[in-house]
Design brief:
The structure holds two protein chains of two kinds. Chain A is mainly alpha-helical. Chain A is built from three helices and two strands, in the order H-E-E-H-H. The longest helix of chain A is centred in the middle third of the chain and has 14 residues, at 58-71. The model of chain A is unreliable at 23-30 and 81-98 (pLDDT under 50). By secondary structure, chain B is mainly beta. Chain B has a domain at 17-106: Thrombin, subunit H (Beta Barrel). Chain B has six helices and 85 strands. In chain B, helix 2 (1004-1020) packs across helix 5 (1061-1071). The mean pLDDT of chain B is 93. The chains are: A mainly alpha, B mainly beta. At the A-B interface, helix 1, strand 1, strand 2 and helix 2 of A face strand 4, strand 5, strand 8, strand 9 and strand 13 of B. Strand 1 (34-35) of chain A pairs parallel with strand 5 (49-57) of chain B, so a sheet runs across the interface.
Chain lengths: 98, 1089
């Protein structure tokens, strides 16, 4: 058992090094942290980080995706296209826009 | 009361639901972050232990709490999702010490069935996406872009409808989840899916595992190099990763929480529902598992969350008992446990029931709760009071008196502490190391008890003993003069100030002595008709060193008398009545008003207004502080005067707005107290208690103090009986009988002072105690405990049988007087017009208490009322009965005496699932329901039509965010009838998360004023994570969401006092009321709790 129990991870050996269990069998801790009341303006995230769920439902999304896949074989190696392949990328973008 | 309600928290939630560890406040600092339902707490790991940093209110009930670190970030971010489908990502800004919002959003769907097993929120270990399972059959994905920014969320259809757990797997090239689910044949399986972010769909995962343990409920993903998951069942633990598989049997148990120990995932701590802690060890060789092993470590509170912190120290968060900080020792102790509890964090949750009692009869309520569950069940005595923070203590038995002395009159600090014992006097002094050590004052006589000590004028000290007064020089510490008691007489009691000494010897002799320079002058001597019990010459007039009056308490005629000084001419004699002698008198002045306090040997305290110019006493008042003799002593703190009443229930007497207030002190028994302000312990008090001398500081802020009475079983109902000075509880004990887990149900009787079990009545097998009541009946002077029960049989959906048991307390024992079988569970019992009103399943039933011909009493059914789904909560007022139904909100019934019938008068037609009801006044009732809302309804007796009269109109709605189990009328603070706050009636509520809250009914103008303040505060105090206060407090259930109305958020309003001055001014300008007035009005509200 000793081998299983030993060698507990230590991130900072100082942590808890001076903590002694109080002699009266662990009396309740009385420390209470101060309560936070933010009054600054950064409780609101940057505008692009206000997240919503896409409105289109799963069925419609799949129908469009299938339609898109059907179109795909007509074009060469869609999967390998990198964004810098300018013209084809723009048409793809039009296709995916319902 | 009124429809204008103010809701405020007196005791914040303490039940811990989540915890996580990471570098949140700085890359170098390790933090523990814990969630207490509607609040998070940020702690810092330090050499001295957990250091609390911040308590953060969240406008939501926390469903998910996760730390994560996007690539390239120096420190962790905190992801929080709430039960009402909001989420936010918080970051700590170390420069400003503020929480800033990185992202937030709404993840609700308009259609979708909320999951039965709670919400799941997980973050991919490679930080590619956040996964949420909020509705059956849907998995929501919030993708991260490569800069760690969140993108628009989308749903994926999840075939499995009964999901038990979902976790991300480690080390997968595509984000992969493992789903633990139950099929429609109730078998449990594990399946994996890859999340294809581009196609926004699942791809069948690399592996699956069918036919798991029927109790499998928890997944633990294992980091690389091993990968895969551990599936925790009730009888087995299984590891699998598609290619390898390992299973071990375990002792049957339900695992509630786990915590990873090693970063490589080779050890985990598991906590089960009986509070046992295990270590799960996975051994492996490269990427192959070679062994799975489980070891029992010891016992903790029943864990809801486990976080390994550092250096073998672990945080155990609990919903059912006190949370703990534990250390895992290398060696087991004598009981075979490797667990050592380092600290405990008080948790009142779940408060299943409570009662408000005034055990000391001081007019101040204290709440006694049924707290905790299972083996962590306890009673908690919660009362408001003043705290003494102990700085140092030393064991000392038999202290008879305590005085502090300065080494010179001009000193700022006290040097000596004179401690008197029955046959000696010891002098302690602060040495250079700021330690107390024994010393000597040569002029003092140490071989006898000291009756009084004092710094006197001309840089002198006096010591009064049984035989003499010794006048000692401060400078030389030598005796300057001595006054000896006449031979044959000894000094019984003595008192003094800087210039005067008053003492009494046997035979009723009263001697007045003045202190000169090096000289004691006996000025006056009279003989009274009886022995003298106590004395005081505390100067309260113009001259701080000289009193013009003396107060004397007498034996035999039990009086208190006022004499002029120096003439010892009697001015006033006030008979106290009774046979208990006065033990301590004190003249004092609070806020310019002079009082005479006189304490008796039985713990009662008289107070009188004292006219300083005429010596007259008026306005006699009496309160009970305890049961033992009281010793009074004044002390000052921050220029205010206080009186410390040392007794078995130490109390501080002070004054606010020229009213005397009594506040409990958080100490058990204090025999003597002396102010002792030394350089090392400024503004401190020396306190003699129970064989100990301690030095502590006085914390003038009133706080709730909580005393725990561990029961080792789950108390579900509590009731107090004034006449027998007992509590009765219904409780459940979980026991192992023949290796079978069994519940035994009890009714127990407890002493209301010692909380010891006095008597126990064991209920039948399967018989639950559902309700308890102390009441008396018409035509019978006895007071009874009535207990309502239900036979809860596993094969029945609803109980069909129960009992009402009537007990009387005789010689400290519960005696069963009568029992009545019922056709269902007795959910509620109320005393009603000298009869007993019971709620039994769907029926309200009234019983008469009748004397049979054979001389025995029995309950006889009188009348009833059908028509509820389940009548769970009943309150009565006069002939009116308010019923809180399982599903059908609140209804109002009326008992008609002439017809002997109960009829429905009105009902609320909303479909609220009730958890508690209470009557605010004749017309207004308050309810709490299943979706954590409060609402108030009003009876319309003046309406024109029957239809309107039959409708209870909803007049207030509010989202509390807490599940209320009980409302009770009462107050946690001393209420004085003539103060402004005394006119505001309050009810107290207790919740599952351990919140004790107060609902106060305000006058309309008061409400309007505070509402204006609240609307300004919302603009200044922002919701953490960008969450909106308005949305948070809006009433919300499955059917509707409407703005809160006629309820104010007292927690927000009272946070005004924590604002910086400029922010206060901003609000003050906006509503046109001065900051001082605002503070005063808000402070008044804080005095309600």
């Amino acid at each position: 058992m000793g081998s299983l129990m030993g060698d507990w991870p230590s991130y900072d050996p100082q942590n808890f090094s001076q903590l002694r269990p109080s002699d009266r069998s662990a009396k309740p801790s009385k420390l209470t942290p101060t309560t936070y009341h933010p009054t600054h303006n950064r409780t609101l995230p940057p505008p692009n980080q206000v997240i919503t769920t896409e409105a289109r439902n799963i069925l419609l999304r799949q129908i469009y995706q299938k339609a898109e896949e059907k179109l795909r074989p007509k074009r060469a190696a869609t999967d390998n296209l990198a964004p810098e392949h300018g013209s084809k990328q723009s048409r793809g973008a039009i296709d995916s826009d319902p | 009361m009124s429809v204008w309600n103010y809701v405020v928290t007196a005791h914040k939630p303490t039940a811990v639901t989540h915890s996580c560890v990471g570098n949140f406040t700085s890359p170098q600092e390790l933090n523990l972050i814990i969630s207490k339902c509607t609040r998070i707490e940020i702690h810092l790991l330090s050499p001295h232990g957990l250091q609390p940093m911040l308590d953060v209110p969240i406008y939501g009930r926390i469903a998910t709490l996760e730390l994560f670190r996007p690539p390239g970030e120096p420190q962790d971010l905190l992801f929080i999702a709430t039960e009402r489908y909001k989420f936010c990502v918080l970051q700590w800004d170390g420069e400003t010490s503020e929480l800033i919002t990185r992202a937030m959003g709404d993840v609700s769907d308009r259609i979708g069935r909320p999951t039965d097993n709670g919400q799941i929120g997980i973050i991919d270990p490679d930080c590619r996406l956040v996964g949420l399972h909020l509705y059956d059959g849907l998995f929501k994905v919030i993708p991260f872009d490569n800069k760690g920014q969140l993108k628009e969320a989308f749903n994926i259809r999840l075939e499995e409808l009964q999901v038990l757990d979902i976790k991300f797997l480690y080390g997968c090239s595509k984000p992969t989840i493992a789903v633990l689910y139950q099929d429609n044949k109730d078998a449990r399986h594990l399946k994996t899916y890859e999340v294809a972010l581009k196609d926004k769909d699942f791809i069948e995962g690399p592996w699956s595992q069918n036919n798991l343990d029927n109790g499998a409920g928890l997944l633990i993903p294992v980091p690389l190099p091993l990968g895969g998951v551990v599936i925790i069942g009730e009888e087995t633990i299984v590891y699998c990763n598609g290619s390898s598989f390992k299973a071990i049997p375990i002792r049957p148990s339900i695992t509630r929480a786990y915590g990873r120990v090693d970063p490589d995932g080779s050890r985990y701590l598991l906590g089960d529902n009986s509070g046992l802690l295990y270590l799960l060890v996975i051994s492996y060789d490269r990427e192959r598992i070679t062994g799975l092993k489980i070891e029992h470590l010891g016992e903790t509170s029943v864990a809801s969350t486990i976080s390994y912190l550092d250096n073998a120290v672990v945080y155990i968060g609990s919903k059912y008992g006190d949370s703990q900080l534990i250390k895992l020792n290398l060696q087991s102790d004598e009981k075979g446990s490797y667990v050592e509890v380092l600290e405990k964090y008080v948790n009142l949750g779940p408060i299943v029931d409570f009662c408000v009692v005034d055990l000391e009869r001081q007019g101040q309520g204290q709440v006694v709760t049924c707290s905790g569950a299972y083996k962590d069940g306890s009673l908690r005595i919660v009362r408001n009071g003043i705290g003494i923070n102990e700085q140092a203590s030393v064991e000392l038995q038999g202290i008879k008196g305590l005085w502090s002395l300065r080494s010179s009159t001009s000193d700022q600090y006290d040097t000596y502490l004179v401690v008197s014992f029955i046959s000696e006097t010891r002098i302690l002094a602060m040495n250079m190391e700021d330690e107390l050590e024994e010393t000597e004052i040569e002029g003092f006589y140490a071989q006898t008890q000291t009756l009084f000590c004092q710094n006197a004028i001309h840089d002198q000290l006096i010591q009064v003993t049984g035989s003499s007064i010794r006048l000692v020089s401060c400078a030389s510490r030598e005796l300057l003069d001595e006054w000896n008691a006449p031979s044959g007489f000894s000094v019984n009691v003595a008192t003094a100030n800087a210039t005067q000494i008053l003492l009494a010897t046997g035979g009723g002799h009263l001697v007045y002595i003045e202190i000169g320079n090096g000289k004691l002058n006996e000025v006056k001597h009279i003989q009274l008709e009886y022995e003298i019990a106590c004395l005081d010459v505390n100067p309260i007039g113009q001259n701080a060193n000289f009193s013009t009056m003396a107060a004397v308490g007498m034996w035999t005629d039990i009086s208190v008398r006022i004499f002029w000084l120096p003439s010892l001419e009697l001015i006033t004699k006030e008979s106290l009545g009774g046979e208990i002698i006065p033990r301590s008198v004190l003249m004092c002045s609070f806020e310019g008003v002079s009082y005479l306090l006189c304490a008796l040997g039985d713990g009662h305290l008289f107070n009188f207004l004292l006219n300083v110019s005429t010596g007259e006493l008026s306005n006699r008042k009496k309160v009970s502080l305890g049961t033992q003799p009281i010793t009074l002593r004044t002390f000052s703190s921050k220029d205010a005067t206080y009186v410390f009443a040392a007794s078995d229930r130490p109390t501080v007497v002070y004054s606010s707005n020229k009213k005397l207030l009594y506040s409990n002190v958080n100490l058990k028994e204090v025999s003597h107290m002396s102010p002792f302000s030394s350089a090392a312990f400024p503004d401190s008090l020396a306190i003699a208690k129970e064989g100990e001398l301690s030095i502590g500081t006085f914390d003038e802020i009133q706080k709730l103090h909580i005393r725990s009475i561990p029961l080792g079983e789950h108390a579900r109902r509590i009731c107090h009986q004034e006449q027998s000075r007992t509590f009765a509880i219904c409780s459940i004990k979980n026991c192992l009988i023949n290796n079978e887990e069994t519940e035994i149900h009890f009714v127990r009787l407890l002493d209301d002072q010692t909380f010891e079990f006095m008597s126990t009545y064991q209920l039948d097998a399967f018989e639950y105690g559902c309700s308890i009541l102390s009441c008396s009946f018409s035509d019978d002077n006895n007071v009874y405990y009535c207990v309502g029960t239900a036979y809860v049989l596993p094969e029945e959906n609803e109980p069909t049988k129960g009992r009402i048991l009537v007990f009387v307390v005789e010689d400290g024992k519960l005696q069963l007087i009568a029992e009545k079988e019922t056709k269902g569970a007795v959910y509620s019992l109320n005393a009603f017009n000298g009869k007993l009103l019971a709620a039994i399943n769907q029926k309200i039933q009234l019983y008469k208490w009748m004397l049979r011909e054979d001389g025995a009493w029995e309950l006889q059914s009188e009348c009833g009322h059908h028509g509820h789904i389940l009548a769970l909560y009943v309150q009565t007022r006069g002939d009116f009965i308010v019923v809180g139904d399982l599903m059908k909100s609140i209804s109002l019934l009326l008992y008609k005496h002439e017809e002997g019938a109960i009829e429905e008068r009105a009902r609320d037609y909303n479909a609220n699932w009730m958890s508690a009801v209470e009557i605010l006044d004749d017309d207004i009732y308050i309810g709490a329901e299943n979706n954590f809302n409060l609402f108030a309804v009003r009876k319309n007796s003046d309406a024109a039509t029957d239809e309107e009269r039959g409708r209870l109109e909803a007049v207030g709605e509010y989202h509390l965010g807490e599940f209320v189990n009980r409302f009770r009328h009462g107050s946690l603070v001393m209420r004085l009838p003539d103060s402004e706050a005394g006119n505001i009636s309050t009810i107290i509520f207790g919740t599952v998360n351990g919140v004790i809250g107060v609902v106060a009914s305000l006058p309309h103008d008061h409400y309007v004023f505070l509402e204006k303040l609240q609307s300004q505060l919302v603009k200044v105090i922002k919701g953490v994570g960008g969450l909106s206060h308005e949305q948070w407090r809006s009433f919300n259930n499955e059917k509707k969401t409407v703005d809160a109305r006629n309820f104010l958020d007292g927690d927000l309003i009272e946070s005004f006092l924590d604002l910086s001055r400029p922010k206060m001014e901003e609000i003050s300008n906006a509503i046109g009321v001065s900051v001082e007035d605002l503070c005063k009005r808000v402070e008044e509200m804080t005095r309600l709790h």
